[in-house]
Amino acid sequence: MAFITANWNPLGDAFYRQIELYDMGWSLRDGLKDCMVAAAPYGGPIVLLEWQSQRPSPSARPQLEIYSSSGVSMASFPWKSGPVRQLGWTVCDDLLAIQEDGTVLIYDLFGTFKRHFSMGNEVVQNQVLEAKVFHSPYGTGVAIVTGASRFTLAMNIDDLKLRRLPEVPGLQGAPSCWAVLTQDRQTKVLLANGADLYILDNTSCTPVTPPGLSPQACSIINMAVSFSYKYLALFTDSGHLWMGSTNLKDKLSEVETKVRSAPKQMVWSRRPKSQQPSVVLMWDRLLLVAGVCKETIQYTLDEECVCVAELDGVRIVGASRHEMLQEVPSACEDIFKIASMAPGALLLEAHKEYEKCSQKADEYLREIKEQSVLGEAVKQCVEAAGYEHEPETQKTLLRAASFGKCFLSNFPPEPFVSMCRDLRVLNSVRDYSVGIPLTHTQYKQMTVQVLIDRLVYRKLYPLAIEICRYLKTPEYQGVSRVLKHWACCKVQQKEEPDESIARAVSVKLGEAAGISYSEIAARAYECGRTELAIKLLEFEPRSGEQVPLLLKMKRSQLGLSKAIESGDTDLVYTVVTYLKNEMNRGDFFMTLRNQPVALSLYRQFCKHQEQETLKDLFNQDDDHHELGNFYVRASYKESKLEARLSLLQSAVDEYNKAKNEFAAKATEEEMKLLRFQRRLDEEKGEALLGLSLHDTLHALLSANYHKQAEQLYRDFRVPDKRYWWLKLTALAEKEDWDELEKFAKSKKSPIGYLPFVEVCVKRHNKYEAKKYVSKVTPEQKVKAHLAIGDLEGAAEAAIERRSEGEISTVLARCSPTTDRALLERLNRARSTAAKK
Q1: What is the pLDDT of residues 450-469, one digit of tens each?
Q2: pTM, whole model, 2 decimals?
Q3: Superfamily for the 31-182 domain
């Protein structure tokens, strides 16, 4: 325990400790001296760029170097662009380089240029004096102050919208110090001009006064905002450090540092839920920690260092060492503090004595159990293990917690198991070769998904996959996602042949769930490897993902074949529409001729949307039959008879070319009918044009134009049965019974006389119906008598024919009360018929 607390320093009611993270692996000739340094939070990478003013000659190019937090080189290249005012990192670990002319260059973790943007035209003329990179709920932002003393903000570099803030009265050049604040989803700039303090927002510049600021201060020369943007620290030329809330309404403390020169760096160090926030100030050889208790801790620095603000402390990066300065968590303080009687401390001692096989272990356990705090002791040990960086200390605490759990019957295992998993993951990413010194607090804030993303971004695919499998992350969120990123990186390796890469990707990805080969193929195409993209698309099972990319790659023929194979008509239509827009008309039609399915679907489309195109298709294919059909359909859309007849004549010509005699004859008869209808319309004034032959006959008969109807009947060779039915129906509808009777007597009816009976009954005229009953054939007599309600006649006919079925039909219509005699007669006849 003495060893663990050896580097603890008290500050008020709290303790602060330095944790050694790494012995740095880089070899820097002059350390961090004369270098612009920027380190990403959450154990992110570190970038170094030699100050342009320190170059041996103006023509010499400074070297930009990117390292992991352990000092392992990740990228290095000569800086060939303009003078840099500030370096910074995005939330996705992309490097931002803000130049003097306002251009912001974006590089990935390995120094590959991604894109750039400008902070405005005004900046080009006035140049950037100072710049800052900040993180807000909107993403990564950039703030600059120009030579015209104007501030410009870019809230989110991924959705660039520049905001030019109002002028600051009396400001000439850069302010003495400034910082970016994010409050209530609004981003503002807090700046000091001498002793005056201003807040700049979108519309106004507001002077503010920190409550309780020392009157000895003539100028505010440095300021710092906490990681959470809740607290503000101001350092004055009198050596006083003011600490309070960022809304400048509450003062936490004011500490006299006894150092009047401006610190090189000033950052907040505050553990979440801690009531003892502090500020870390760094000068050339001095590191000072000032707390709200007005006490300070001083550390002597033996080399040039850089402070990096973190969620739960401050990282101190030097040329030889990388350390973490943080407030000692309460769980660790309770367990390891000298002479502590906290439950966790007693349980740790009990376990140590148990490992020595000492009876003192039982005494410690009894004391804990008497106070009924064994559960709390286990929780303290589990929590403290998460805050420790050394694996041996973690194991000691977890073994003590496991030992205490043995004496509890209902302690939930989840916190212990979860902490073991978390620490195994953390220890693996803290390894020197990986170089991500995350704390447990940062890990929980970051989430596993973000950690996996960062490992993938660093191309640490095996470790990312192992962590996903160990944590049993769903495949589509874990292993599959990592493999997809690996494949996208693999296709960019230009030294390997296409076949080799396609095979490697196929073997590695196999049947992994949730992987879209089309995305990998799209990346290959972006890299100029079209053939590789096509090979990768062969592994994509979804045609809907294959086809759009094939079209993008100008492989429309292959895309059409894939769309047809899928059986998805919408997809085929998509490709056909694309081909129609991209090709000339002749090539387009020739392409469709080689794909019958696509041609058929396109014809269906043209039939409803583009009639003229359909005609062109038939012409090109010499499809005379379909051309004839096209002219017939087109004729029905014409209102003028001459135009209609002209189209029908064209149809006849096409049918003759197709040797379709039936269709040609039918079309000629249609033309003959149209001319006949036109003549009748002109002579009689009847609106017959456009009616079918059947309807025309019916209309003529209904209008008493029997002569014209007869002519039509003969000219078009209408079958006798159809004509008799038409005339019978028309006369009955008119109730022209005399004409109907004449018609019946004109010659023998080809349809019989039962229809005459039925139409008369339908028109409620049984008197007329009776006239035709006698002419009905014997087989239909019973039906005719029943139709007019003549039961006696029906019975006579049924008995005469000795048909058991007809007798039964008549019996079913008889009433037992009124037709008793008839019933008896029919029953006797049925019995006789049955015997035979």
Answers
A1: 999 999 999 999 999 999 99
A2: 0.73
A3: YVTN repeat-like/Quinoprotein amine dehydrogenase (2.130.10.10)
